[in-house]
From TrEMBL:
Domain of life assignment: Bacteria
Lineage of origin: Bacteria, Pseudomonadati, Bacteroidota, Cytophagia, Cytophagales
Transmembrane segments: 12-31, 43-62, 74-93, 105-122, 129-149, 174-191, 196-216, 222-242, 254-270, 350-367, 387-406
Organism of origin: Siphonobacter aquaeclarae
Alphabetized UniProt keyword annotations: Membrane, Transmembrane, Transmembrane helix
Protein name per UniProt: Oligosaccharide repeat unit polymerase
Length: 446
């Protein structure tokens, strides 16, 4: 049991580096802003990301390289190429004195280094990544809880985040995504591992992650959890997966670790009506905000009364895109330039700013990841591939609701998907291994 914790240490080290670079911002913000080590310092953030890259360096660096999923890698390379072309040759923002092209180049350089180290990372990293991700998300959750408990200005019921100062600040969506990632990787590890300590850590972090999602009050993350359950029901309940789940539940350890905490938490909540009322208030607030967003979307951009400003911004962005489509369709061929207009609607911004070619590569990439995610959820050939498939769900929601298509919050996960989401390859390897195991052993020569 303890031996499993330290087996494959070099692969766990690489997985830790991936976690820091790929999903490390919640923990980085805890050390940076929560513990006041370097409040709002971009240098500190860059140093932490660089540490992740250093931890990813394998012993076979420059000696062996591993394949990518070409269905994802080709449109991803096309999209990055379009972004770089527009960055240098069609960049209206460059005339702004506050604009920093160097910052953009640093982001792309770090993405390039991450991509290189991913193709250098051995495939065995997939076997050790999920326990590392569970521990990593758990520590990030604890960091958020510690910051809230030590912040005298935080009131239970407000959106949880790590505050930049004593007044206001922080981004709850970063911690909400960490909570979602924790829920998914904990459930995967709980049913795929026989290690008692792993199961115990998974259960504890599962409830911590659910609490994080609830405290951050992120509509997108709550919607992603609902979509994840729907994806599992629609695509994941195949005969082989149902059989594997039944086999897992036949183990006494799984039964105890899965149901005992649920019963204990249910009993505790039943004895705390105030806490139940607070949770009910969270969901009422979530439904009210969702209704506000729907009302704002239905009113359109000409409304005098704005109910939800976030939804209103996307309505305005859609109206701008529609006007360009009908009034100046030629602009859709070339686009308006690198980060010309922030639409908070990435799929539309890809077309509005980067033209037909940019939209094609970005939309094609999203389409291919959707296909690969469905396949990974259905086949469940590797825990890491399944985890990435579910992790794409909140990213898919963001494609239509938040951010810019050039953000590293899209680019870094896309690189992970291209490297480790290879269900067809893994399925062929499983069949080849099964066929080799079925071959009779040769008779000894007398």
């Amino acid at each position: 049991m303890l031996k499993d914790l330290f087996s494959g240490f070099q692969y766990k080290r690489i997985a830790l580096g991936i976690a820091i670079f790929f999903m490390g911002h919640p923990l980085i913000f805890f050390f940076r802003d929560g513990l006041k080590l370097a409040p709002q310092s971009s240098v500190f953030t860059a140093a932490c990301l660089a540490l992740g890259l250093v931890l990813m360096i394998p012993s076979t660096l420059f000696q062996r390289y591993f394949s990518l999923n070409s269905k994802l890698a080709i449109p991803l390379a096309g999209w990055v190429g379009v972004c770089l072309f527009y960055l240098f040759l069609f960049n209206p923002s460059a005339v702004d004195p506050s604009y920093s092209r160097m910052r953009e180049l640093i982001n792309y350089a770090m993405a390039g280094a991450f991509a290189f180290l991913l193709i250098s990372a051995p495939d065995k990293v997939k076997e050790h990544a999920i326990p590392v991700f569970v521990l990593f998300t758990f520590v990030a959750n604890l960091g958020l809880f510690y910051s809230l408990l030590t912040n005298p200005h935080y009131v239970l019921g407000a959106r949880a985040s790590i505050y930049f100062d004593d007044d206001y600040g922080g981004n709850p969506h970063i911690f909400a995504r960490n909570g979602f990632a924790g829920v998914i990787c904990c459930l995967i590890l709980l049913f795929s591992s026989n290690n008692i300590l792993y199961k115990l850590l998974s259960i504890v972090n599962l409830f911590a992650s659910l609490a994080t999602v609830l405290l951050t009050q992120s509509r997108g993350t709550l919607m992603a959890l609902v979509l994840a359950m729907g994806a599992f029901i629609v695509f994941g309940l195949t005969k082989s997966n149902v059989k594997a789940i039944k086999t897992a539940f036949r183990k006494p350890s799984t039964m105890i670790f899965f149901f005992a905490p649920i019963i204990a938490v249910g009993y505790y909540l039943g004895s705390k009506p105030q806490l139940l009322g607070l949770i009910g208030g969270y969901f009422e607030q979530f439904l009210a905000k969702l209704l506000d967003a729907l009302v704002t979307a239905g009113q359109g951009s000409d409304t005098d009364e704005i109910v939800d400003y976030s939804a209103y911004n996307r309505v305005v962005s859609f109206s701008m895109f529609k006007n360009m489509l009908f009034d100046n369709p030629i602009a859709l061929i070339t686009g308006n330039g690198y980060k010309f207009f922030y639409m908070d609607f990435p799929i539309l911004e890809a077309a509005y700013n980067y033209g037909f070619i940019g939209f094609y590569f970005f939309a094609r990439l999203i389409y291919e990841i959707v296909r690969e995610s469905i396949l990974a959820i259905r086949k469940m050939t590797s825990p890491l591939g399944t985890y990435l498939a579910y992790l794409f769900i909140p990213i898919f929601v963001s494609v239509f609701s938040a951010g810019q298509p050039t953000d590293t919050t899209f680019l870094f996960p896309f690189l992970m998907f291209a490297r480790f989401m290879q269900t067809e390859k893994e399925e062929k390897e499983e069949k080849a291994a099964a066929a080799a195991a079925a071959q009779p052993e040769p008779l000894p020569v007398s």
